[in-house]
Sequence to fold (695 residues):
Amino acid sequence: MAGATTSDHATLERALGLPEALTIGMGTMIGAGIFVFPGLAVGHAGPAAALSFALGAGIAVLVALPTSELATAMPRSGGGYYFVSRGLGAAAGSLVGLGQWLGLIFASAFYLAGFGFYVNDILVRFGLGPGLPPYWFAFLAAILLTGVAIVGTRTSGDLQNWIVGILLVVLSAFLGYGLLRVAGFVEGAAAGLPDRFAPFGALPVVTTAALVFTSYLGFVQIANVAGEVREPNRTLPRAMVGSVLIVGALYVLTILVSVSVVGTGALADAGETALADVGRALLGGAGGLVVSGAGLLATLSSANASILSASRAVFALSRDDVLPAGVGRVSQRFRTPHIALLLTGAPIALLALLGRIEVLAEVASVLHLILYGLICVALLALRSDRPFWYRPSFRVPGHPVVPALGAVFSFGLVAFMRAESLLLSLGVLTAAGAWYLAFARDVEVGAPEELAPAPLGRTASILVQIEVPDAPGLPDELLEALASQRVVLLGWCEVPEQATPEQVQDELGEEAEGDLEAVADRLRARDVEVETDLVFTGDLVQTIDRTMQERDVDAVLSLRPRKQLRRILVTVQTRAMLDPLARFAAWLARTASADVLVLHPETDEDDEAEPLRDAVRSRCARFGLDDAELQAMTPEEQDSASVVLEAAHDADLVLCGETEPGEPGSLFGGINEEIARKAEVPVLIVRRSGQPAEE
Fold:
């Protein structure tokens, strides 16, 4: 009887938890706010610039709460544009979406301008002269980051996490030592606490808050990846509010420590690289270089995160036909949204040459403050209209006061920008409005699709994961072996950091589905009962772990090209896996008439139990593997993947077991992940519950 597909569906993998979501927000915010603004802000408001940062953080929190509610009701990539378009209509949404994209372009140019100043500072300290003007370094960095984003890298997300971690360590050490110096616990010259906290009065505190608000753009970037966040009802509000509070506290402490260490006048005179001067005052030349190096990382990290977010905003606009559909396409070669990245990177490079760092910051702030205000208004409108699809799992405390205050303060802060920045922002918004009227006036946006959980289907025995499109063929003799089992065929399509799952699904989904169905048909032709699952993910290990838990399957098969199945290598790590591995090995060996080699430890931690070699032989005999070859591994060898990989050269299939049976993540714990990644033959990882054949 041919097997039927019982739960075929495509899903977008939710792979981001709270730490990853916090990193996205903080990675954007820990940048210019700390490493570029202190000197500029203190020059405008004196030590009271600390209040300017606190005011900006307060407004950001008022916006973060409504954004969190909207994101749990519409957990889709696209962020602010998606929320406003569904809450206030296509016209407001289009204006906001285009403004968001252009705002990220201005913000990225600002971050890279700060990068240029820090490059110059390092060159001067090493006696190499100023080199190129700072803005040329910014221009070159914009080209480099855009090129890297287009080519794509699987490690960019991990790199971003490392950068944020390094910055937090540097800042914690910098602030901790500075506070000890100011408090007198550490010897060394210090300027002391300032005599006048607000020497220029109250108004500059507000105008400086308007200038530095660019520092808080990162938290809404978390909403841009809402469709990829696990448990969005809990993760999104915690990540958005938490990232603002953590970074806001760092900003305030940085201003207070910096002013206390070097003094208001010296800090203002140092300008864009003032924090490096504070580092030199605290720890000498080495301290200055460490802070300058951290400034380089911070500004590059912020610019990189903003470029990627801008490309996602372009995709959301193209998906709704506000921009031509082609701009959101994914490159067949690199699997990245190359056109969106070029449309983002090119203007960033040109704006970096503008040479007006404060204007770049303020234009980015204006465009985002308008977005934030409209997000709050959209929440009020949706709460009032109560559309059938609006069912958020998180609700703003203090409604309607909180979103109303968020809107008022966001729009109100715009009024305190300098005239030049307001005129440039008005020009950008006018161009966005003209585009909408000329090309997108007839666009209609639909209600968000309800995201129902995927059906779990019925229990399967083997999960076979294949990369699509261009799926590899299944080895013929493995097909024969699978005929007696139920199979979950997991087709996965890689989502790089530079793209959203929806982008890759739109570009490659039809081809991927066709390839997956072709493989499933081959299995069904051999009477294999098949369930298919198509996932667009950036984290395959987590995807497999989730699928195995949901489907309660017994083993996962990682494919490599292999035509025959004549020799099976079984690697035993724990006594608890003897029975499941022996069952699977016996079933496969019987089906394919294959020889079996069992690698097992020399000794076992349980001295009272049957000696491990005898236990392995008795289990093999119990399941009909009397002729299996046994090979003991020394304690050093049993924890090394290289021993298994060397033995795998003469095998056609490797069987591994859970490293710690029953524990979460044990399928890919220990050496299993390295074996599955490096082996040139198929690898089957077995769970303790595996029952593939009758005893």
